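Support request from a user on the community tier.

User writes: "When I paste my structure tokens into the form, the page sometimes reloads and wipes my input. The last time it worked, I copied everything first. Here is what I submitted, just in case something in the input itself triggers the reload:"
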């Protein structure tokens, strides 16, 4: 099945009791049984809910995976994954990681004995020297946030396999339309479905997809045992979002390219990070592992100061100044004062996050309007 057909049909079926083509919102906490233990596959809604079941199947199909497991947020999904490990186990990750994932690892799971190391991964040949006998998982994100660096998924899968470790990919930035890590050898895919999958900035959700039955069984157990489950209304919104993922992503990619090229020739712009430029260090890997380059861009101003960046952010009329990404509307953010404000300035700059760095989540409005808006804000 090709992408468009898959996102609309795979994993879902009309409601058997009524024929409703859209999966109903099963807003119920429990299910009546004919007698003790005699039920129709549903007992209690933390354990299973029919709206959630269809969403999990649809998400699994979207990533070419067998098993989908849904959670109340992206971080709840990642938190549950950490429970696959034991004290002393190490997770090796990248130094350009989503801030909330970093916080979960360092401020929560280190207290329970898990170990984490964060290294530069855009050159995959450096990764294997950091793998130790206690490394149980390699956790990557590609493209990264907000510097749009690219990590080679196939190379990481080979390194993980050799070390007897798992490879997990946070595929939030690319979405299942642009990149399918399981096809490239990853064991686990995680999404903040809050972003492109939901696509309309109206729901918070996370999911994990895998082909490994052992991992899936452990995650279904943890989903019920720990209980970070999404409600049925949220599952419905995601089922709806998924059906238009491919058309939205096509437009995000088209608009992203137009805006990246516009910014690059602008006299007041110093540098543009977008993985579709042929001179981007990760271009050839991005080209081989992604179907398009997406709508996430960051750029630096020639006037490399916080004040100059803040002026741009407070002058846009269509781009809304907000955290998050992946919705139909364009958003603009300033990592130094927003998402990465808690990182000391020297450390932030050493990692490439300069004072004027601005991040764009390019939406699906008319590109001409978006370009005019950025132009007047930068001028
Ligand atoms: C937003 C985000 C998360 C966290 O997801 P929530 O749904 O906000 O909990 C994780 N990874 C990436 C790349 C994100 O953008």
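"...and here is what came back when it finally went through:"
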């Amino acid at each position: 099945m090709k992408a468009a057909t898959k996102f609309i049909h795979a994993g879902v079926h009309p409601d058997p009791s009524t024929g409703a083509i859209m999966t109903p919102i099963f807003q119920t906490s429990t299910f009546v049984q004919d007698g003790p233990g005699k039920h129709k596959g549903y007992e209690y809604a933390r354990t299973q809910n029919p709206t959630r079941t269809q969403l999990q199947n649809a998400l699994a199909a979207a990533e070419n995976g067998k098993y989908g497991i849904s959670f109340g947020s992206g971080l709840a999904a990642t938190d549950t994954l950490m429970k696959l490990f034991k004290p002393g186990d190490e997770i090796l990750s990248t130094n350009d990681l989503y801030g909330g994932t970093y916080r979960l690892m360092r401020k929560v799971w280190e207290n329970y004995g898990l170990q984490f190391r964060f290294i530069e991964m855009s050159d995959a040949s450096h990764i294997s020297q950091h793998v130790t006998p206690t490394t149980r998982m390699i956790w990557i994100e590609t493209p990264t946030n907000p510097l749009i660096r690219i990590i080679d998924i196939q190379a990481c899968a080979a390194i993980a396999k050799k070390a007897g470790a798992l490879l997990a990919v946070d595929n939030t930035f690319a979405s299942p339309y642009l990149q399918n890590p399981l096809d490239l050898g990853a064991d686990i895919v995680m999404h903040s479905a809050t972003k492109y999958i939901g696509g309309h900035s109206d729901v918070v959700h996370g999911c994990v997809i895998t082909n490994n039955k052992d991992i899936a069984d452990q995650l279904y157990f943890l989903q019920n045992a720990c209980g970070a489950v999404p409600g049925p209304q949220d599952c419905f919104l995601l089922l709806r979002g998924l059906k238009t993922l491919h058309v939205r992503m096509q437009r995000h990619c088209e608009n992203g390219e137009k805006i990246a090229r516009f910014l690059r020739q602008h006299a007041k712009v110093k540098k543009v990070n977008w993985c579709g430029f042929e001179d981007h260090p990760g271009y050839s890997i991005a080209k081989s592992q992604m179907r398009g380059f997406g709508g996430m861009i960051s750029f630096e101003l020639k006037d490399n100061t916080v004040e100059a960046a803040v002026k741009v952010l407070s002058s846009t009329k269509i781009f809304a100044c907000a955290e998050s990404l992946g919705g139909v509307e364009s958003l603009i953010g300033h990592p130094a004062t927003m998402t990465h404000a808690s990182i000391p300035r020297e450390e932030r700059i050493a990692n490439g996050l300069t004072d004027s760095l601005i991040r764009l989540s390019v939406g699906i409005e008319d590109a001409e309007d978006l370009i005019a808006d950025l132009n007047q804000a930068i001028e």
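Agent notes: The reload is a front-end session timeout and is unrelated to the input. The first helix runs from residue 3 to 9. The pocket of pyridoxal-5'-phosphate is lined by residues 73-75, 98, 100-101, 141, 145, 170, 172-173, 192, 194-195, 204, 206 (CB under 6 Å). Escalated to web team.
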